[in-house]
Amino acid sequence: MLEHLRPTAAALALFTLLTGVAYPAAITAVARLAFSARSAGSLVLRDGAVVGSALLGQPSSDPGRFWGRPSATTPLPDDATASTGSNLGPTNPALLDAVRARIAALRAADPGTARPIPVDLVTASASGLDPDISPAAALWQVPRVARARGLPEERVRALVEARVEPPLLGLFGAPRVNVLRLNLALDRLLP
Amino acid sequence: MTATSWIEIAACFGLLTLLAVPLGEYMARVYSGTSTAADRLLGPAERLVYRALGVRRDDDMTWRRYALAVLAFSLGGVLLLYALLRAQGALPGNPNGLAPVNPWIAFDTAVSFVTNTDWQSYSGEGTMSHLSQAVGLTVQNFLSAAAGMAVLAALIRGFARRQVEGVGNFWVDLTRSVLHVLLPLSVVLAVVLASQGVVQTLAGSVTAHTLEPRRAAQASAAEQVIDVGPVASQVAIKQLGTNGGGYYNANSAHPFENPTPLTNLLEWLAILLLPGAACFTFGAMVGDRRQGWALYAAMLVVLVPLTVGTALAEQRGNPALAALGVDQAPSALQGGGNMEGKEVRIGAVESALWATATTAASNGSVNAMHDSFTPLGGLAPMWLIQLGEVVFGGVGSGLYTLLLHALVAVFIAGLMVGRTPEYLGKKIGAYEMKMASLGILLPSAAVLVGTAAACLLPAGRAALGNPGAHGFSEILYAFSSAGNNNGSAFAGLDASGPFYAVGLGLAMFVGRFGVIVPVLAAAGALARKKAVPVSAGTLPTDGPLFVALLVGTVVLVGALTFVPALSLGPVVEHLQLLAR
Q1: Neighboring chain A residues of B347 at a CB cutoff of 8 Å
Q2: CB–CB of B207 and A78 under 8 A?
Q3: Distances, alpha carbon B210 to alpha carbons A52, A82, A177, B213, in Å
Q4: Residue A82 shares a structural domain with residue A61
Q5: Which chain B residues are closer than 8 Å to A105 by Cβ?
Q6: B35: exposed, middle or buried (C-beta count within 10 Å: 0-12, 13-18, 19+)?
Q7: pLDDT tens digits, B521-555
Q8: Residue A90 scores a pLDDT above 50
Q9: Dihedral sign computed on CA atoms, order A6, A8, A11, A15
Q10: Whole-complex ipTM
Q11: Residue B92: CB partners within 8 Å, gap ≥ 6?
């Protein structure tokens, strides 16, 4: 065992410098130079102030804005310092109660729409910070948003459809709409 | 399942094979010491490392010396990481002013990262400083993977060599694993990830003023504190090294770790790449490439059907939600499926692909919350872990454990025809069989004893996040994950207390070194043997018959050991869901 003491100490020291200091530093340097906005968190600015990250979901309850995925972070939703899912099992009564409450809130904000609600609007995301909703979930909200904003439904629908990102090569991932970018575009429609 | 989903799964495994074959060949050259293209570039650096370590490249170690070197190095790693985590409050690289990690979590984490498990009983963004993440956790992501690869190289030499005592030099294998394989691959992957939006910075948190407050009454709730840090560099190696410990609590479900479908695909490939390539390294080093293909085929035969089954279960959705009038059907406008604990950009099918890959490969990173999977969707990942992390498995550790199963398979075949079993021209004797049995039984014992203890003790039961059968599944999953060095969780279980810190820590230790030591002992015994010529009675180990025997052994051992426990957890829950 004693013969291994020196190589152990030397290897830990050397590889800590190489993989723990030099490697992250080199990647940071390349990322800051080549992809400065993305490596800093894809921050979104409006009038010079940071309003969020294009990659992180935000809380929403205003009928005149698109709502994102429900978030299970505690105590407040969409907490970017405590990412988490609900971890509720599929048979857990607490999950079913939460889904019922979300359905009730969506129905109350838009009693006129009878169509079934897309699943991503009533289930909590894995990270608690999902920035996207499905195109179906965005289109479901169009009548409510249009009414609250006093806009024709077609204009709001066109806004959604212009922001649909398809799966990669039509194959990998699911179709999606970024909620923060959609809401910012909506705000720009109404000065 | 939709037609696109079938094509997607086929494309993923096709891509994986295309990348794994050449990488495996390259790794064979790395461990044979034959010069590679990288040697010209890295040769001088490598020689400097050996001088600093005070080792000679041609110093061939017996299996005992090799095993002691692995143990000494791992123990040193645990001590260093524990000290770093306890001291982080007083060290630089802590822009958000985080406190020292508490002793239980520091112990659990140190063992976890050194054993390549990366079980995390803490939330990364709220617990670990930038320094701890980079200098502590990232370093062990490299070194635990490299140690696993070194042990595999020693075992392969045991098969390839004839009548010698030595199985290689641990320090050389370790160094070459880092310099020639892990570091170059990580650099490439980290840069691509950063280009897609994975965060990489040394700055502290940013505060955003969101469009709406969380609650109308609280103006301060309109602030969103955005945690950033050196993420891309850590995500790359946590995927490639089958470590799986996320920078953020939500792991690769967090948009900053996995922002687009492209990063999801690349990170998925990175989970399986090195364990898959190891099969081809094996074939090349024992001088018979068909042997490597047979092992790779056996892995796919188990993994692909379980992946399809999980994808079917998750895309079908949760029957309990269907009853509430929720639209879960996949269409051109939504991915659909069981979306609780899943991300929209990733979708149900790729969550299933990842769940089976990360549990097959002892990676343990997640892009969806396994705790919220449908009962059958959650059963497959748990069972893949319980198979002993041999289907792909950990970097190095997957294949060396699968080779123990291969010894059992040829032994059973030998019993059937009444011949002394052989594998790759080596007669398999009582000693090798004892070592194979130990290496297979020790981790299983750690899982079942640990689960039983947790069910019996109040401290074990108090940590549950879900009631009933699902709660039992959480415990079983935790010990399966620890005892087989996977690291993923049914995360509703609160494992931050002393009971789970110590219990899971011990399970991880047994799961790692209770396999490594028997593997090296078998390697030493095999290297000493002379080769026996192939005869008409030799079982060919490169054809479908052997693949079927091997898969049968893996599945039978896994099934017989864990079916009683599984029937108390996921199976009961599935029946409850049907009975609604």
Answers
A1: 167, 173-174
A2: no
A3: 6, 17, 18, 7
A4: yes
A5: none
A6: exposed
A7: 999 999 999 988 888 778 888 889 999 999 999 99
A8: yes
A9: negative
A10: 0.94
A11: B131
pLDDT of residue B162: 92
Q: Which residue has the tokens 């991300």?
A: B343
Rounded to 5 degrees, φ, ψ at B166 are: -85, 150
Q: Do A41 and B194 touch (CB under 8 A)?
A: no
Regarding whether A61 and A94 lie in a shared domain, the answer is yes
- In angstroms, the CA A63 to CA B51 distance is 68
Amino acid identity at B343: E
State whether B261 and A124 contact (CB < 8 Å): no
Rounded to the nearest 10°, the torsion over CA A44, A46, A52, A53 is: -10
Q: Are B573 and A89 an interchain contact pair (Cβ–Cβ within 8 Å)?
A: yes
CB-CB under 8 Å, B333 with A175: yes
A30 and A94, same domain (yes or no): no
Q: Chain B, 65-124: which have a CB under 8 Å from a chain A CB?
A: 65, 68-69, 71-73, 76-77, 80, 123
Q: Tokens 């792909």 belong to which residue? A: B392
Taking the CA of residue A43 and the nearest CA in chain B, the distance in Å comes to 9
Position B244 scores a pLDDT of 83
**Residue A164, min C-alpha distance to chain B (Å):** 9
How many Å lie between the alpha carbon of B207 and the closest alpha carbon of chain A? 7
B-chain residues within 8 Å CB-CB of A184? 211
pLDDT of B131 > 70? The answer is yes
Range of the domain at A138: 43-189
- Residue A110 CB coordination number (10 Å): 19
A31 and A48 co-located in one domain = no
Q: Is the pLDDT of residue B485 over 90?
A: no
**Looking at the 3D structure of chain A, how many domains does it have?**
2
Beta carbons of B206 and A49 less than 8 Å apart: no
Would you call the peptide bond into A166 cis, given omega within 30 degrees of 0 as the criterion? Answer: no
> Which residues make Cβ contacts (< 8 Å) with residue B242, sequence separation at least 6?
B116, B145, B148, B271, B274, B275, B361, B362, B363, B364, B393, B394, B395, B397, B398
State the smallest CA–CA distance between residue B419 and chain A in angstroms. Answer: 40
Asked whether residue A116 falls in the same domain as residue A185, the answer is: yes
The minimum CA-CA distance between A47 and chain B, rounded to whole Å, is 12
Residues A48 and A31 in one domain: no
